[in-house]
Records
---
Amino acid sequence: MAKLKKHAFKAETQKVLSILTHSLYTNREIFLRELLSNASDALDKLRFLQSKGEAIRGGDVPLEIRVSANKDEMLLQISDTGLGMTEKELVENLGTIAKSGSERFVNDMETDRASAGGHSEKSDAAGENEHSWSSGSAADIIGRFGIGFYSVFMVAESVDVISRSALGDEPAHMWSSRGTGDFTIKALEGDEAVAFSRGTVIKATLKEDAREFLEKRRLESVIRKHSNFLPFPIHLEDERINTTPALWREPKFAITEQQYAEFYSYLTYDQEKALDVIHLSVDAPVQFNALLFIPDSAQEYFGDRRDQWGLDLYVRRVLIERSNSELIPQYLAFLKGVVDTEDLPLNISRETLQENLVLRKISQTVVKQVYAHLEKMAETDAGKYERFWTLHGRYFKFAFNDFVNRDRVAPLLRFSSSATGAASLTSLDQYLNRARDGQKDIWHLAAPSIEAARVNPHMERFRKKGLEVLYLLDPVDEFALETLGAYKEHPFKSVERAEAKDLSDFSDTEESPAVAALSEDEKAAFDKLLDRMRAILGDRVTDIRVSERLSGSPAVLASPDGVSSSMEKLLRVMQKDESAPKKILEVNPDHPLTRAMLRMFEGGPDNPLLEDFVNSLFDNVRLLDGYIDDPQLMADRTLKLMDKAASWYVDLLKL
Ligand code: ADP
Ligand code: MG
């Protein structure tokens, strides 16, 4: 008798298994998709080795997958003639889940459950809250986190995996588990051990409530739904089920919208339809077919998914590499799809794909075609383009770094602006169409939100003159405009940098309330007030001066050199500098508050109340600029002033 070796699952694997076996009751059919996709992966790997000329056992055995069911024994069997696994590989591949993957799975499932309105308390997976996970996202999550194999325990009571590697000369081994604490491995003996030359057989004994997956029609529909595009034949009880060949190689006119949609969901596991399809068939300068999709949901490729983008690369229908990121620049990371070329040798090694000239040419062509596609979309279906921008603009805008295609980037950029309101966006061309006669500059203001942009004091002059201002709500926007410099010879300029002469050519479009100008004496007194303010604020400001740009606000901060405040913030974040930057305080002498302060000053330059006002005014402009230096002091000052104001009010009205 061969020795039975017992192994315990790792803790995180057990947690995932526990969720899968006890908590997911709907959409369980996706277990079949996972097993078939593993079988297909194993066949892909075998074909790849074969094409490189490696010695493989059973060289003439066809590459295929077989599914069969035995109702009497409650047995579902899935076999493939792929690469197979050695004993060691069985233990490694089926005994552990990459820790990060399983942790993220458990976390995601819990967040998902919380947001689905279920119980939000953390639980140890199993138990009372069984039905609270929404099945759609479970299907998504299982596929994404590389825990596909274990999904078989949603339907199976026990599973045997018999596998024999196509490499080396090990006989077959059997992995067995009930999906609880442990699994066993044993070497098969005699005829059993060499019954097949290579590949894997999965024998799942189904749970009573999963009997449906022994019905031929049910199996057939699940395979059609999820696995129709697998590149190897799937036979169900001797009938071939999947018939669709590599869709990307078919002529466009022969493909229905439905087929594109099915292929997309097969490729991405996305339950929604794609926003758009780009199907390319190119002969020069390189030959390739590409089938690309723009997802209709926002993608996340910053942070820990940073490296998980790219297109699946095929050479003559043989999968060479998934998510190859040489095929597209990072700013197109949101694209999903496949590229298939005749111009690479089949025996290319994955290492030499980097810096490969053919791939570079394919990439250049793909990029050009994507631009053409987006340009057309922007022109013929502005609503759809705006949706594209909302979903993927935060990646796509990084195209400003692509110097080759730079002229095509600017017209595709979209912004919020003072003229469009919150709901819609503007292009640079639309901005220029609305520009005032003789307007040379394209004005912009960086702000954390539209609301913040609207109350920014720098906006006052522009509002008065009816000059539109682009709101740069993403820190990258400013880098993008800085790099581009100008659009159609209209330079980009920050409103913070606007000088009086930039605006003097434009008449006011809005009446401003007349305020009597300061007399010469008052002007002199005002200068002294500014001196007093300098003494109070000390080195918290670089200077204090009279403002030419304000009407509705009492004061504003201006940057001393060429950097705008949001750019400065970004630089400081990058340099981990947390101190507040020093700026020039500009004071509006015509504002009621500053006029009142002037009278207070004239009444007694040392009035301590004046000091409170100056400090509070400064707090206020700092806040508008996006900084809080000293929240405790600030709250204290505000309270003091409120206290005074309240008692004056009560006294005044004799309440
Ligand atoms: P993933 O497919 O994302 O790697 P799975 O949990 O689906 O995660 O599978 C785990 C691993 O088990 C696979 O990466 C593969 O190495 C191995 N495996 C699973 N099924 C097969 C199979 N039919 N043939 C060969 N290896 C397999
Ligand atoms: Mg898998």
---
Amino acid sequence: MSSPRKIRIGLAGLGNVGAGVVKNLQKNSALLTTRTGAEIGVGKVCVRDLAKSRDVEVPAAQLTTNLQDLLTDPATDIVVELIGGTTIAYDFVADALRAGKPVVTGNKALLAERGIELVALAEKENVPLYFEAAVAGGIPIIKAVKEALVGNEIDSIYGIINGTSNYILTRMNDADLSYDAALKEAMDLGYAEADPTLDINGWDAAHKAIILAWLSYGRWPKPEDIHVEGIENIAPEDIAFADRLGYAIKLVGVVKPGTDHRIECRVNPAFLPKSHILAHVNSVYNALAVRGDVVGETLYYGSGAGQDATSSSVIADIADAAANIAHDAGFEGFLPHGEHGVSVPLSETTSSYYVRLAVDDRPGVIAEITALLATNEIGILSIVQPEPDQPKKGTATLVLTLHDTNYGTIASALEKIEALPCTQKKPVLYRIESI
Ligand code: HSE
């Protein structure tokens, strides 16, 4: 048997995930050699601060602060980009592709915003670009959609694809933690992005949804065209009402085909029925329900963030790239062409809804509200006026669930409800997703 080919990675970024890659490549080195026929080692590593103490040991001679050193080092076979951001990272990935070096990246913002350019470049240069770690941390969802489901039209993807926000919602529900306390825990555990804003405002999940939409339909939704709503404004009382009504609130990414080859791609907090397994995905876990026209419903579950889980996906890509090089296998897998798609506008998207109203506590108010909904042809699934734990004199809470209708119709009806003299506060609206 021939001896395994030595493959060196040039690693850009030795933060939480980068350190996990080095640690776990070492841990399972013999296993990876057996499985890939390549002896994978770490070559040059680019860091911001040479003096910083780290969890993993990399010989000082391998460290550099200059990204270009990774590309000019002839020993670099594969480039791994884990620096994040969309400007320096873009230039670096583009330079690596032009230099003929296969690239592994976990950078979802980079792909969602500039993937269209990078895919075109990768195709032009005939150099592979791998990105398993960009979506859902340790879950191999990219391989699933790109390879295992390649013979399917994708009918829908519903995903809990941000570990930090799922962790926060779980802790608010299970431990009655405040939003801030739960966010701090998620940051301390290394789940959140360096700037957690993207985790909680929905954009981290949106970047992942855009990548899944591209893989599913071969076209990139434009970030500015899609609806993205985060978890910042979810009130504890809505979490409690959801529970009482048989739902759990989750931040979901939804990808579906629309009419006329358009793509529905959105991220929003949603009520998920407890009868569906996604409603029971808690803590930092992610899960995706993918429906294909041939296979039917499939489900993928695992850690969506964190050092080990995410490094598992990065290492899977490194192993693919190394095996390709070691066996001269050339380019593998399908890569849809990069062009922009047209997004279905939010107003045309359809679901059922949960609505919470604060209204005057007097006879006839429910009749006014239901009449207005009827005029707008919105059907009521249920209506309750829960007895409050701490009654507020003169105010009644109404909780309604509504039949399927498009968002434009419900949004316009709620504007009219808000304008009624009996309505005391802006109505609260959440989608109920029937998966
Ligand atoms: N901050 C991300 C999350 C990490 O919480 O899901 C994985 O993208």
---
Amino acid sequence: MKKANILLILLAVAVINSSAQTKKPISAEQAKMNKFVSGLMAKMTVDEKIGQLNLVTGGEATTGSTVSTDVESKIAKGNVGGIFSMTTPEKIRKTQEVAMKSRLKIPLIFGQDVIHGYKTTFPIPLALAASWDLPMIKNSARIAATEASADGLNWTFSPMVDISRDARWGRIAESSGEDTYLGSQIAKVMVQGYQGDDLRKVNNIMACVKHFALYGAAESGRDYNTTDMSLDRMYNDYLPPYKAALDAGAGSIMVSFNDINGVPATANKWLLTDLLRKQWAFNGFVVSDYTGVSELIEHGLGDLKTVSAKSLSAGTDMDMVSEGFLTTLKKSLQDGKITITDINTSCRLILEAKYKLGLFDNPFKNCSEDRAKNEILTPANIQAARAAATQTFVLLKNDNKTLPLKKSGTIAVVGPLANTKANMPGTWSVNADMALVPTLIEGLQNVGGKDVKIIHALGSNLTADATLQTNGTMFGREIPRDNRPEEEIIEEAVKAARKADVVVAALGEGSEMTGESASRTDLNIPETQKRLLAALLKTGKPVVLVLFTGRPLTIKWENENVPAILNVWFGGLQAANAIGDVLFGDVNPSGKLPVTFPQNVGQVPIYYSHKNTGRPLADGKWFSKFRSNYLDVSNDPLYPFGYGLSYTSFTYGDVKLSSNTLSKDKSITATISVTNSGSTDGKEVVQLYTRDLVGSSTRPVKELKGFQKIDLKAGESKNVTFNISENDLKFYNSSLKYVAEPGEFKIFIGTNSRDVKEASFTLK
Ligand code: NOJ
């Protein structure tokens, strides 16, 4: 390891020691749990303890090629602590009954990737983040918890809180985007939504925060790739959302696959013990990712026995699928490579989780057929998913009031994504029943009503390359394919367009073109679709691009040429109806981008809260020699973070501060008047950013510190007020101390991270 790195790690450890929390006295409830768990552990053999650390699949491989085998006989022998990806009260009861016949009758915990809703699928996480609507996001997690728990589950592998600033990375779709503050707020409400106030209640499930840590900063945006990061960036930008989720009470955390500064997370003692346990005082359990333990062999850390011992002693408590713990830990104990305390510590944490969930009182608490029948896919849940989706769409462009559409006339709905059910819900919607998902055509007809005539043509394939289309439509997410020559398919769509009053082009990505192991180096809409779009534009008919995507795409050409663009991400079960609601103007769009859209892929990673450099480019310039810029493209993004239009317009007044000085332990307010200056009622996300002008370390040019989503009737004005206190100005300095430094600060309030009004104050 380089000397500088050693120094930084020593520094981080010193910070941990100085800030380690003093032990709080334990509550009567905790004392009761400790007594119960200690009593149980006193009866357990080493094998049974190791068994608790083993997490297996319910029989099918999910996100890797390894599958658990002989699951039932392992459960019977006490060799399994939990199962994932098995659902329904019937199957779960049957499996739990096997555990109840094992010697100590320790219940299993049942998990699944309940990521954006359960059967009532909500929009993908990146889309939810675009709503900036925390109560709605919390409610989506609440509904997911109710449905999942009604179907037998008590644990979800969510929320995913990895910050990502790299659109090439496919899993950006599962994240809340690029911003630390927004990501932390969402992390918190997701955990609250899943876990409720008491995990023993039948409709609450345990959250598992993932992927710890820095998974979203994989080099080159390639999934599972190495992360190498400074402590400044870690502490200030990437770690806070994990911390926010844990502070909200998340009961478990999943380790990421990636290497962090030379040590893979699964075996990273600094990460899992020094930071997580000592500094953050996390008292839940740590689970590896899918075969994360055995993958340490490929990382080059040794054989299965060695890597299993390393993971356990680093702080991984539960081994997902590798069975490295199950098959080697006892031998490592005998060889003195690990201690019985290592095993006891992990076993205790897992038993405590089961205790907190009330599973020792009732192992079958989630096995009610009645609940499964009555609480899943209820009309209220479905309605909530539809309303939620309408809040996530981002209107990127709307020239000449192309939108909203009239509920009359002929609409040509064309493109490979117009007539597919499977593409609508989005990646990680394993429980979605595709038969229940309307296609875009169906959604538009439902909302448009009888006076709207819809005509359809495929217009193009998803990608010209059939293999790419197959790889981008996995897990049954097929999209119709036509093997005729491209010109013929396009011509058919052009004919349909000529007959129509307006064209809706449903283009973009297949839903499995993002998600796990779906990284891309080209962020364009596939070329064959672009050729279709160009041909449609040539007809002279108004064209609305309905853009499906799980990541920022490079749509510079589209932005220059298409009059209206609505980014709809992947909107869950009710996506199509919700798109109808927005396209026809029943709902005014209000989503704002939680990620910067680049002009081209060469700008990636691009994010608004960057540092300034010593040679920043002057505002409004494209290129100046010896300045920090590119020869071939300006530094500007295509659409900035926080951007999104509405069918109405909002006018901002000036920022008024209650005082120009802020003293420690006091707060000031910043108030701005926002007016709906158009003729349609609408919602606006008012965003507050700050800049610390002089610091002991370099500070970002802007940092989001608050936002409010407000309703404004046409013509209405409201004053929006934000409180600012010293706490909002704190950051980790170069000694990793969390401080606010006296001096001048700027405040920016506006409709996105670029278009803002500003004011200044001094922190005394
Ligand atoms: C691998 C993924 O990285 C993780 O997010 C997921 O929870 C597990 N597989 C389990 O399916």
